[in-house]
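User: I'm writing a tutorial on reading structure tokens. Could you give me a worked example: one chain, its sequence, then its tokens, then a sentence or two explaining what the tokens reveal?
Assistant: Sure. Here is the example chain.
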Amino acid sequence: MKGVHFLVTLALLALATSLASAYDPSPLQDFCVAINNTNSAVFVNGKFCKDPAVVTADDFFFPGLNVPGNTENKVGFSVNLVNVDKLPGLNTLGISLARLDFAPYGLNPPHIHPRGTEILVVVEGTLYVGFVTSNPNKLFTKVLNKGDVFVFPIGLIHFQFNIGQTNALAFAGLSSQNPGVITIANAVFGSTPPINPDVLVKAFQVDKNVIDYLQKQF
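And here are its predicted structure tokens:
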């Protein structure tokens, strides 16, 4: 009888261990508020699946990454992200792709991808790239030339800056069908509604006129 109790206890421990090692799927949007009435549900953590009987090759195809992006803007940068919204076949596959175009001295400003690690390869030009860790905020940087590869861990602030006098081109793979992006300056100084200036004055330890100026830029 003691042997039976031992086997039952062992089985329960094994079950508990397997449950403890399980995890929730990574979120594919900023939030997903639970609802009991499925008739009122609009979003799922990802996308609804198309009937396999009507899937075609076009569901796995996206043209146009050979076309340069328009870099005539304040930062001299353009990105064309091919995520699940543009390529439905990416749904549940945990991957996306982006083309990054840089004018001379163009910048992809400091930003994060809350749901994806990024691996970048330089096709043309020279980029100064880097990321900052969580506290104590150590900076890792590298100058990349044609053919060089660099990885930016998920959720960390990172950037890419064209330090050359010619256009630069890079491609990036991301480990999510919808990695998301939060550009730091835009989020802090250009949120809707805006963050109370008193908060930013305290946080950045600058005069309120500086904060007012920065908020007007975004």
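What the tokens reveal: Strands lie at 77-82, 96-102, 107-112, 118-124, 127-132, 139-144, 149-152, 157-162, 168-174, 182-183. Residues 6-21 have pLDDT under 50 and may be disordered.
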